[in-house]
Each structure stands twice: as structure tokens, then as C-alpha cells.
């Protein structure tokens, strides 16, 4: 079973923000992704946006659009 939940780190322990439907002593595997918007993530998103704009907004597309109207 794969479930995505939100949790908060308090006092050295992760505390789920919602109850989990698990039997006591169930062993789970945890993968963490912080919700923080760090500089590396912001730069990665900015690079993706620049790449998309470069491919999306270019003169070749403008010529193609003109040809479609004729």
C-alpha cells in the first residue's frame, strides 16, 4: 500500500497530521520530502521555465502561425 501523508517533526519524532489506518506495530518504509521552498528547488524550477519559454516562444512558431492563416 502506498500512502502520502503530511507530518510534522517534533521532539525528534515525526507526527502525522492525520490518523493512520495501520495496525499497531506495522513496519513501514518512509520517504521524506520537505515542504520547504529551498534555493536549489527554486533554481531548478526557474531553469525549467526558461527552457519551456525558449521552446514555446520562438520565431519559428510565429512563421508557422502565419502560414496557418493563409
Provide a descriptive summary of the structure in words:
With 70 residues, the chain is of the alpha+beta class. It has one domain (7-69). It has helices at 39-56, 59-69; strands at 7-10, 13-16. A hairpin with a 2-residue loop joins strand 1 and strand 2. The chain is elongated and about 70 Å long. The model has no long low-confidence stretch (mean pLDDT 84).
Sheet of most strands:
2 strands, antiparallel
How far apart lie the N and C ends?
A: 55 Å
Secondary-structure content class: alpha+beta
Low-confidence stretches: none
Tally of separate domains? 1
**Average pLDDT, all residues:** 84
Helix content: 40-55%
Our count of helices gives 2
* Morphology call: elongated
Determine the strand fraction and express it as a percent band.
5-15%
Order of helices and strands: EEHH
Give the total of beta strands: 2
Order of strands in the sheet with most strands: 1-2
Q: What's the alpha carbon Rg, rounded to whole Å?
A: 23 Å
Keywords:
single chain; alpha+beta; two-stranded antiparallel ribbon; elongated
Topology of helices and strands:
Blueprint: E1 7-10, E2 13-16, H1 39-56, H2 59-69
Antiparallel strand pairs: 1-2
Give me a quick take on this structure:
With 70 residues, the protein is α+β, with helices and mostly antiparallel strands. The chain is built from 2 helices and 2 strands, in the order ββαα.
Amino acid at each position: 500500500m502506498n500512502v502520502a501523508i503530511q507530518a510534522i517533526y517534533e521532539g525528534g519524532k515525526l507526527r502525522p497530521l492525520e490518523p493512520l489506518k495501520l495496525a499497531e506495530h506495522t513496519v513501514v518504509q518512509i520517504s521524506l520530502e520537505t515542504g520547504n521552498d529551498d534555493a536549489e528547488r527554486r533554481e531548478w524550477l526557474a531553469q525549467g521555465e526558461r527552457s519551456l519559454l525558449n521552446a514555446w516562444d520562438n520565431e519559428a512558431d510565429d512563421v508557422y502561425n502565419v502560414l496557418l492563416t493563409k
